[in-house]
């Protein structure tokens, strides 16, 4: 049984893989200051939601995998997905240029006034290079 969490309750995990508050696991422990994951419940609908984060070797975000507590487990069966991918979500070179600037990002969510999911792909244009002379 999941304990009742007061609305806007949040649990941030860094070096933890087990969330003792609700008895679920995060993908992996991180010891470099990056956030492993977070679980929260909002006042609006009272649903438990979770993000598991993944990073590249330089500590830059590659993905934020969203799940919601439905049917006794965290999953996507509720039809809601707010996941984020930088590039393809796995390769740093598809997400960031050599200077660490974001090249491409996708964020999923609900389209206002609709019950359907939509992915908002955001190719980030390269900044103009202004050379003197």
Measured distance between first and last alpha carbons: 68 Å
Mean pLDDT value: 74
Helix count equals 1
**Helical percentage:** under 10%
**Poorly predicted sequence stretches spanning 5 or more consecutive residues:** 1-8
Would you list the SSEs in sequence order as H and E?
EEEEEEEEHEE
| Total strand segments | 10
What gross morphology would you assign? globular
Structural class: mainly beta
| Quaternary structure annotation | single chain
Largest sheet at a glance? 8 strands, antiparallel
**What is the strand content?**
35-45%
Rg of Cα set: 17 Å
Please write out the topology.
Blueprint: E1 9-13, E2 18-19, E3 24-25, E4 37-41, E5 48-55, E6 61-70, E7 73-75, E8 84-86, H1 92-95, E9 104-110, E10 117-123
Antiparallel strand pairs: 1-4, 2-3, 4-5, 5-6, 6-7, 6-8, 8-9, 9-10
Can you walk through the features of this model?
By secondary structure, this protein is mainly beta. 3% of the residues lie in helices and 39% in strands. It has 1 helix and 10 strands, in the order ββββββββαββ. The strands form 2 sheets. Strands 1, 4, 5, 6, 7, 8, 9 and 10 form an 8-stranded antiparallel beta sheet that branches. The chain has a two-stranded antiparallel ribbon with strand order 2-3.
Task: Give a quick summary of the entry.
Helix content is 3%, strand content 39%. The chain is mainly β and 133 residues long. The longest helix is centred in the C-terminal third of the chain and has 4 residues, at 92-95.
List keywords for this structure.
single chain; 133 residues; mainly beta; 8-stranded antiparallel beta sheet; two-stranded antiparallel sheet; 10 strands; disordered N terminus
